[in-house]
Known about the structure:
Protein name: N-acetyltransferase domain-containing protein
Strand order of the largest sheet: 1-2-3-4-5-7-6
Distance between the termini: 20 Å
Strand content: 25-35%
InterPro entries: Acyl_CoA_acyltransferase (IPR016181), GNAT_dom (IPR000182), Ribosomal_N-acetyltransferase (IPR051908)
Shape: globular
Number of strands: 7
CATH superfamily of the domain at 5-116: Gcn5-related N-acetyltransferase (GNAT)
Radius of gyration: 15 Å
CATH topology of the domain at 5-116: Aminopeptidase
Number of helices: 4
Domain N-acetyltransferase: 4-163
Order of helices and strands: EHHEEEHEHEE
Amino acid sequence: MIDVELRDWHPDDIGVVLDAFSSPDMAQQSAWPVETRRAALEWMGTWRFRDDARAFAVVAGGEVVGNVAVSNIDAHDTGWVSYWTSPHARGRGVAVAAVRRLADWAFAERGLFRLELGHRTDNTASCAVATRAGFQAEGVERAKLRYGDVRHDVERHARLATD
C-alpha cells in the first residue's frame, strides 16, 4: 500500500485543484465550475471553519495528488466521505490509502461512529476504492444523481468505527 499524508489545503495548491477539475470526470463534482484561480481558492475555502466537515489534501511522494473529505457530520456521529485523485495518480492505491487514513482520523479524532459514501453504479473504480478501504456495500439508491438529462443509480457503502 502506498504511503500518503493528509494535510490542510494551501493557496499554493491552486494548480492541483485546477488541474483536477479540468478532467472531464471531475467537471460536475463541485457545486460550481472550478475553472479559475479564484474559483479554486473558493473551493478550498469552503472547507475552512465548518463544524460539519473537514477536507484534506492528499500528498503522495511529496506531491499533492488528491482530496479526501468528511462532510454532513450529523448529531448521530455519522459523516459523508468523498474523495478524488488527479488523473496521473490513479490506479496506484492512493485513494484507498487516503480514504483509510481519513476514516482513522474521523473515528479517532472527530469521534464519528459511522462513515457513508456513495458512487454511481457505473463507476467501478470508485467502488473498488470504497471496498478496499473497508466500506461495505449497503444497497442501491435508484436514480439518485442527475447529470444533465441522465439519472444515475448510486451504490451506498458504509464503514463503522467497530468494523
